[in-house]
Design goal:
Layout: E1 2-3, H1 5-9, H2 20-27, H3 33-38, E2 44-45, H4 66-70
Parallel strand pairs: 1-2
Amino acid sequence: MEISKIFDWYSGDYEGENSVEKVLARFGPETYREFLEEGGYRIRHQSYHWGLNDQGETGADYRHNFLRALF
């Protein structure tokens, strides 16, 4: 499983009942719910694309969305 680097930077916010795995199982796409609830998958963090929120030329070609990155 590859997820946003933001989950790594704010890892302290994703512990216990709010673990990354539980957040993914709760908010991930319905079609992957069973897989996400089972767990046991490895998580890797993607490189962060700094143009994501850039309204200028740097962000103009950003085409990678969160859910496509997950699956």
